[in-house]
Design brief:
Layout (H helix, E strand, L loop, with lengths): L7 E5 L3 E7 L2 H7 L6 E3 L2 H12 L4 E5 L1 H11 L3 E9 L2 H12 L3 E7 L6 E6 L5 E6 L13 H6 L2 E5 L6 H16 L3 E5 L3 H18 L2 E5 H8 L4 H9 L4 E5 L5 E5 L2 E5 L13 H13 L1
Parallel strand pairs: 1-5, 1-9, 2-7, 3-8, 5-6, 9-10, 10-11, 11-12
Antiparallel strand pairs: 2-4, 7-8, 12-13, 13-14
Helix pairs in contact: 3-10, 7-8, 8-9
Length: about 290
């Protein structure tokens, strides 16, 4: 580790205001939503889902995959910093205020060109969540928004597959990865979305091989990445590309391949989760916390 004090974690992600709604399966059918997925939406679809959400007494919180991980680390007492982009609007003010309340390193950039991004999350009675994300200001995050010194100083740099949605975001992450590699910052990558793997499979395999020390995937993401339905075999395959490969397998637990040795980790806690929103992000935070 680079520091005698608590190790520093730097994350670049998509800060999103989460709008969480309890919904029935028939609501998803009426709205044309494919259950259990994350879908990127435009302004008109966003307005339609917001109108639906307002009829269901939604809850609001700070969200986004990487932000969830970084915020959880801060709550656990780790010296953590979040970078991303929000709009110059009320939701951007709310997000900034919540980060500052958490005593979190805040490197959010602001823009007048797009509103703050948000995710309408519909949670069905089986605890499955279906996410509908309007990226807004996130799409404009660029390499000019990065603080190179923070990347250099960090012990860990964390990012997710969601940052591949625009060329501007991709360029920013590649810039940060180059800085991390030159300065001995440990790179942790959460693939985070099956659709992202489908679109960028070869790119992600190259990223894992060339830049990543620790990689998180769920069984579906790993299946697409390695064309294999066996999460154990996927973990072994990914473990050949990076030092530590992790495949999460829902209520069955997870597999961790470290230095080519595979461990099976059983699930802990209640058999029936209340809500799976952010579960994988929290897993990543727990793992990085253990390393810290």
């Amino acid at each position: 580790m680079k520091h005698q004090d608590t190790p520093r974690v730097y994350g670049i992600g998509n800060p999103l205001i989460d709008i969480i709604v309890s919904a029935e399966d028939q609501d998803l059918v009426k709205l044309g939503i494919h259950k259990g997925t994350m879908t990127l939406i435009g302004k008109e679809r966003h307005a339609e889902l917001l109108s639906f959400a307002k009829t269901k007494h939604p809850a609001y919180s700070c969200g986004g995959s990487c932000p969830n991980t970084i915020i959880t680390l801060a709550l656990l007492g780790v010296n953590a910093t979040l970078a991303g982009k929000v709009g110059n609007d009320e939701n951007g003010d709310i997000y900034n205020a919540k980060l500052n309340d958490l005593n979190l390193g805040n490197e959010l950039a602001r823009t007048d060109k797009q509103p703050t991004g948000s995710t309408v999350i519909l949670v069905t009675p089986d605890s499955e969540r279906s996410m509908n994300t309007f990226l807004g200001a996130n799409r404009l995050y660029s390499r000019n928004d990065i603080n190179p010194q923070t990347v250099k100083d960090a012990d860990f740099f964390h990012f997710t597959g969601y940052m591949w949605d625009t060329q501007s975001q991709q360029d920013a992450i590649m810039c940060a990865l180059d800085i991390a590699k030159k300065n001995g910052t440990i790179v942790t990558f959460d693939i985070a979305d099956p659709f992202a793997v489908g679109r960028y499979r070869e790119k992600f395999l190259g990223l894992i091989t060339d830049y990543c020390d620790i990689v998180f995937a769920n069984s579906e993401e790993a299946r697409i990445l390695f064309d294999n339905y066996d999460p154990y075999e996927c973990c072994r395959s990914m473990g050949k590309l990076c030092r530590t490969a992790i495949v999460k397998n829902g209520k069955k637990g997870s597999f961790i391949c470290h230095d080519k040795k595979i461990l099976k980790i059983p699930a802990k806690g209640a058999a029936s989760p209340v809500d799976t929103t952010g579960a994988g992000d929290t897993y990543a935070a727990g793992y990085i916390y253990g390393l810290c």
